[in-house]
Design a protein that fits this description.
By secondary structure, this protein is α/β, with parallel strands linked by helices. It is built from eleven helices and 13 strands. It folds into two domains: 254 residues, Spore Coat Polysaccharide Biosynthesis Protein SpsA, Chain A (Alpha-Beta Complex); 32 residues, no CATH class. The protein has a nine-stranded mixed sheet. The chain has a two-stranded antiparallel ribbon with strand order 2-3. The chain has a two-stranded antiparallel sheet with strand order 7-13. Helix 3 runs antiparallel to helix 4 and helix 8 crosses helix 9. The chain is globular. Bound molecules: uridine 5'-triphosphate (UTP).
Length: 296
């Protein structure tokens, strides 16, 4: 058997319109919304780095400057903090610019997640690669992406992350029809449906924002017509790969049981801020005490 190419590249789509968060996202990408004191996208970049991915590509859209600036040096600010002797904040500011290098490619128009991934084709080339949605946070303690990379190496196909949701909530997600594989802790994905009505959904397993994809997905995306919402859907391309045969076909799922937040959704965003803030040593106890009183 030929040795499989390792996964070293991360593609981070951050070019969506963020309409659910308007007007906050009128002049700023939703990925820059702060979760406690870091923008959401920084958690995602940190996860990619922690998972061993060394080549990071961000897909940006309108208002991309804030994203690029955040991960770049800011000499004026660094000098000011140095003069003040604020070494802790200086370290935080410097840290964000040391996560890279990050490459950027522009998605001229927000034509859907599938189209955003297709924008990475030249950079990725003929290797399997990870996709981390820039507004989707996975708890730091979890090694979901590393597990997915192992499954990709074992199967040679594409791997998605699935999470159980309340049956009524499935219409907000891509949904997987799956079969268990004996002796394995991952599943085979037979088919995928984008945002099905609860009454016709094949399961309550929702597709969440982590993928490890075979590069065959690019060829499929090029031939995928706009689907739901007139957007090129990654789910539609994965559906083709799930039903296909030969090199690069086959889709597998890792069922995630940890904590995850969609920061592009207002309620989920608020939960992320409160949960992560309550775990911070500097104000967690104060916040919890205040929250108890507030709820009462
Ligand atoms: P979403 O569907 O959550 O993003 O995409 P959206 O379209 O910005 O959301 P709403 O519905 O308008 O509020 C998931 C991820 O894919 C990126 C988004 O930036 C987000 O990180 N995305 C989506 C793109 O990069 N390009 C697109 O055309 C669509």
């Amino acid at each position: 058997m030929t040795k499989r190419k390792a996964v070293t590249k991360a593609v981070i789509p951050a070019a969506g319109l963020g309409t659910r968060f308007l007007p906050a996202t009128k002049a700023m990408p939703k990925e820059m919304l702060p979760v406690v004191d870091r923008p959401a996208i920084q958690y995602v970049v940190e996860e990619a780095v922690r998972s061993g991915l060394t080549d990071l590509l961000m897909i940006t859209g309108r208002n991309k400057r804030a994203l690029e600036d955040h991960f770049d040096r800011e000499p004026g600010l660094e000098r000011a903090l140095q003069l003040k002797g604020d070494t802790a904040r200086l370290a935080e500011v410097e840290y964000a610019s040391q996560l890279g290098p990050i490459h950027y490619v522009r998605q001229g128009e927000a034509k859907g997640l599938g189209h955003a991934v297709l924008c990475a084709k030249r950079h990725v080339g003929d290797e399997p690669f990870a996709v981390l949605l820039g507004d989707d946070l996975i708890d730091e303690a979890d090694t979901l992406l590393a597990t997915m990379m192992e499954v990709q190496q074992e199967t040679g196909g594409s791997v998605i992350a699935l999470m159980e949701v309340e049956p009524a909530a499935i219409s907000a997600y891509g949904c997987g029809d799956i079969t268990a594989i004996e002796g394995k802790d991952f599943v085979r994905v037979n088919s995928l449906v984008e945002k099905p009505a609860a009454s016709v959904a094949p399961s309550n397993l929702a597709v969440i924002g982590r993928y490890v994809l075979h590069p065959a997905v690019f060829g499929v995306l090029e031939n995928t017509a706009p689907g739901r919402g007139n957007e090129i859907q990654l789910t539609d391309a994965l559906q083709t790969l799930a039903g296909g045969e030969g090199e690069g076909s086959g889709v597998y799922g890792v069922v995630f049981k940890g904590r995850r937040y969609d920061t592009g959704d207002r309620l989920s965003y608020l939960k992320a801020v409160i949960t992560l803030a309550s775990e911070r040593v500097e104000f967690g106890e104060d916040l919890k005490t205040w929250l108890k009183g507030f709820v009462n």
